[in-house]
Amino acid sequence: MIGISFYLQDPHAETQIIHAANLGVKKAFTSLHIPEEKGDLVKRMIKLLKLSEAYGMEIHADVSLNTLDHLGISKFTDLWPLGIKGIRLDDGFDNEMIISLSKVFSLSLNASTLNEDELLAVLEGGVEPERLIAWHNFYPRLETGLEEEFFHDQNRMFKKYGIPIFAFIPGAGSKRGPLHEGLPTLEKHRLMNPYAAGIELFQHVEGVYVGDQGTENNLLENLTAYKNLNILTVRMESNLLQSGQYKLRPDVSQDVFRLQNTRVTENVEPSNTVARSLGSITMDNDAYGRYRGEVQICKRDLGANHRVNVIGRVIEEDIPLLSLLKPGQTIKLINE
What we know:
Strand content: 15-25%
CATH class of the largest domain: Alpha Beta
């Protein structure tokens, strides 16, 4: 599952919602307790929720005990007729309120802070696991995102009880203020290519949401192609290899990814037979006989081979994607 985030005082929120919906992304997150947001928030919220409903978008809202005062409403159930069908509970809600709210809303618990005793108390209170989502925080401040080992420990706990897990990646392009440092769940993702961060998260969680409003550089398009079609998009620099879709061999080589159906019968003269590095794109030349023309991507640094031409490389920002490639996967190479 892929989702976007929009915020009440973002002037481009309408454009984000429409863009995502047109790509088939029908899930969105918003927060209803951001201290920096001021003004007639209910009016703005109603406008965005009506637009979301018109485009078939399902909205989950982050709420805290401050939300009621923040919006000027009397009770959380007032959010239901406004179009919010799911809420994510920040810290501070007691079990009685959690159980009560679960009878009205699709309920998301804070996956980053809840411990197993607290989770068991909720479950023993009568909330069915299939009605819950374990949804991690995002972290606006640099250096405060989750440690990876802790993230996996928390996820193991929720998986034990059959509860789906959602998490955030930073946006591409514009970042939410006031810090503009990105909104990832994992600190390691803060400065990473958001697309690579999303692909990595999909190996561990059911729902990946873009925390910031920015989805430039075809972020949603590429995530959707991966999730729906298992196509992983990688950018490259090459004067010889054409942009296009290629399929990896199903057998896994130790040192290289081998692209199927790239061998040729015409001559491939030896050229640029230099040392190869992680991410180098190569083509076997005439000296390799029947392997002539086979294209490979290096998994690690390799020495020069007079039978192998170096014809390009994966751009540095996309190198992390190589570790996420699977046997037989379709890879979409795009020349930058």
